[in-house]
Amino acid sequence: MLTKQKGDLALGKAINFFLSNEYEVCLPVGDKRKYDLVIEKESSLSRVQVKYGGLYKGLEKCTVALRVMGGNQSYGYAKKYTAEDFDYLFVYTAKDESYFIPWDDNIIGKSVISVEAQKYNSFRVDVQG
Fold it and tell me: What's the 3-state SS for 52-106?
C-alpha cells in the first residue's frame, strides 16, 4: 500500500470514530494546515492530526512519524510539529488499532513515537467497521 493510501485509510478510520461517537467532523479545504480534521462536541472545537502507524525496519511495534516531510527532486526536509499545530493526534496502525492521544508535553518535540508503548495504552479506542 502506498503512503498516501495509508494516510487515506487512517483518515477514514478517524472520521468513522468521531462520527460514531457523536462528534461533528469538519474537513479543511486543501492540505496547507498542520491538522487534518476539526472536531466539535458540546460546542468545543479541536484540531486533529491523523497519522498511520506502520511496522517499519523490522520493528515489532508500530511507529508514527511526528513530522512533516517535503521537498522536491533537488532537496528534502523534515519539520517537527509544534505545540500550536493541533490539539489531538489520531493514529490508525498496521495492526488495525486506533489511538486518540492529546497533543501535549509527553509527545511534542519528538520525531517518532512507538504508539504501542505502554504509556499510550489508555488512549486506545475502538473504531467500528
Answer: EEECCCCCCCCEEECEEEEECCCCEEEEECCCCCCCEEEEEECCCCEEEEECCCC
3-state secondary structure of 2: coil
| Cβ–Cβ under 8 Å, residues 99 and 124 | yes
Find the range with the poorest average confidence among 76-80, 87-91, 98-102, 110-114: 76-80
pLDDT (average), residues 75-91: 92
Whichever domain contains 78, its CATH number is: 3.40.1350.10
| 3 state DSSP class of 39 | strand
Query: What confidence score (pLDDT) does residue 70 get?
Result: 79
Domain count, the chain: 1
